[in-house]
Amino acid sequence: MKNILLPNGLEVSEIALGAMMFGSTTSKQEAYEVLDMYMDMGGNFLDTSNNYAHWAGTGDESETLLGEWLRDRGCRDRVVLATKVGFDRHGKGAGLKKEQIEYWIDESLRKLGTDYIDLYYAHTDDPDTPIEETMETFDRLVQKGKVRALGTSNFDTWRVAEANCLANAKGFTPYSVMQQRLSYLNPKFGVAPAYAFNEVVGRERLRFLCDKNMPLVSYACLCKGAYEDPSRLPAEYEGGERLQFIRERAAEKGVNPSALVIAWLINLYRLGNFPRIIPLFSATPEQLRQNLNGLELTLTEDELREMNQIGCR
Ligand SMILES: NC(=O)c1ccc[n+]([C@@H]2O[C@H](COP(=O)([O-])OP(=O)(O)OC[C@H]3O[C@@H](n4cnc5c(N)ncnc54)[C@H](OP(=O)(O)O)[C@@H]3O)[C@@H](O)[C@H]2O)c1
To answer: What is the pTM of this model?
Structure first.
């Protein structure tokens, strides 16, 4: 796996590993196995949140397990650790107010057993809190050394622009990474995502990211395993020609379809009108091994353009 130097100075592997279900539906043994394999294959970019996975437990499991693993392996300095604040836990506590951020950063540091977070995301927007309060609080965390860089997830682009304008004017640290849902399949036209915040990246967002030179961490990029098993396709996605195409093209190339989706995402920036994209997914050790075969694929620019056009005429 190659490393990418992001404009904010973080050096991350070209694939990020999702730890959402670690310690809840993913056992400690399997989580350790996949984490060890990912690191052995050159990965360093781990993704968690202060609320994973509250719908399957308390919401402390993922950070707690990652903290144990970091301590057991003694590898904190080799990992780029991303966590998040702002979503609810058991229906309560969503928000980006000063007291919330200050409380949850210390909880995340405690659970993760570290004194700094490399990338701290606002997990979703909080329209009820003044942007200035949120950005000033985040900036203070950076000044104190608790956080190295800031990101957003599940924000409208105009809200990210407003926040960064204000940060620039006031001398606060801006958001420098966006985490949003993007996969090869297109969402059905006019169908709202299952959760309002969970928008799939569209053309306007891609233009925004390119203009701002902001990398995209594309979460849920494997559509929950639908490329291998189309019966798992989330309802808001269009399967059709694009799904059939990727499955056939992957078979021709001798890889599983998810591996080709990953290769497509990683290479899109070469076309010039796409941001740098870092695919983020969860996987079992065997799925991870298969999916990383995508890193060996060579995709020409013509092939990338062809893939983009499928099902879009
Ligand atoms: N910012 C946000 O709001 C947000 C939201 C959601 C997730 N995330 C982050 O994104 C990460 C990934 O989310 P996700 O797990 O929902 O992503 P996903 O990419 O949509 O799905 C990953 C799932 O696909 C299946 N899969 C992967 N490789 C496969 C293969 N080779 N063959 C067959 N199935 C395969 C596995 O499901 P099975 O294990 O069931 O086989 C795996 O758990 C999370 O861990 C979290 O860190 C962020």
So the answer is: 0.97
